Amino acid sequence: MLDKYIEYVQFEKRYSPHTVTSYKKDLDDFSHFYLKTEGSEDISKADKKVIRNFIVELSENNISKRSINRKLSTLRSFYLFLLKIGEIKVSPAESISSLKFYAEKQIPMSQEEMQTLSDRVLPEHHDLLDQCIIEVLYQTGMRKAELCGLMFEYVNISGNELRVIGKGNKERFIPISEDLSHLLESYLRIRKPEDPYKSYFFVNKKGKKLSEKFVYVVVNKYLSLVTTKEKRSPHILRHSFATHVLDNGAEISKVKKILGHSSLASTQVYTNANIEQLKKVFNQAHPRASKKEEL
Fold first, then answer.
1. Is 286 a catalytic residue?
2. Mean of the per-residue pLDDT values for the chain?
3. Alpha-carbon dihedral of residues 138, 142, 147, 149, nearest 10 degrees?
């Protein structure tokens, strides 16, 4: 059943390779737990009690609530699939609620920090691939998985445009600046992919496709040179891109398209990044605030 489900999400639902891999790992983790506690590998026979015990064990092993909720979401999807094909009559995961948690506040890089990184730090290190990784993530809001999977044929340097395949295999087009186009053109002169990886635009120094871990290490390394903020990940560059373009007057609906969000609510998260700044501007501009200061 596990193989059938993986084929279903891969070929019928057309989820991204990254999502399919995550689903498979979540189900493998639950299968190992089920074998250990119930002596069977057939998780289609699992009940609510086993799933709850699985959640308890994950919590005791200090797995984050976000990760536990993702695994629970995978199990819900798996059992809905079994319902759909008539393998079970009731989903054991149906009435199990996700764990409540407060999302950790994501603090974007400041525009000044990013300017320092682009103007001084990156040029000093003379690594064109590293520079491309940082600039593409920050100037496009692309996800790290999307950058790693960016196809050579989808990069239109002369047209200043990238074609990106995002979550759910959804396609979108992202405009890029002439400066970024020139940077990508410079990278092409040193790009030496091995035969199996020629279709990918970015390759590492060994000519292989970039790994997400490699991208994370590069981003963390350079952000550490310009900030003391705790979060120094590729996602922070995506967050910073959205925050900065919205701060500078971009329409939220257009930012939504560039980021590849399916709902406006996902993009609106970034409008909350500078609430304190908005409050300050409002208080300075509002006539009532002026009168209070005079008093």
1. no
2. 88
3. -170
Note the CATH number of domain 1-85: 1.10.150
Residues of the chain with pLDDT under 70: 101-105, 271-295
Our answer to whether residue 238 is catalytic in this structure is yes
- Catalytic status, residue 102: no
From 144, 191, 232, 238, the catalytic residue: 238
**CA angle, 36 then 41 then 45, to 5°:** 105
270 an active-site residue?
yes
Position of tokens 């959640």? Answer: 55
Q: Where are the domains of the chain?
A: 1-85, 111-285
Q: What is the pLDDT of residue 96?
A: 92
Decide: pTM greater than 0.90.
no
pLDDT of the residue at 206: 95
CATH number listed for the domain at residues 111-285: 1.10.443.10
* CA 81/CA 118 separation, integer angstroms: 47
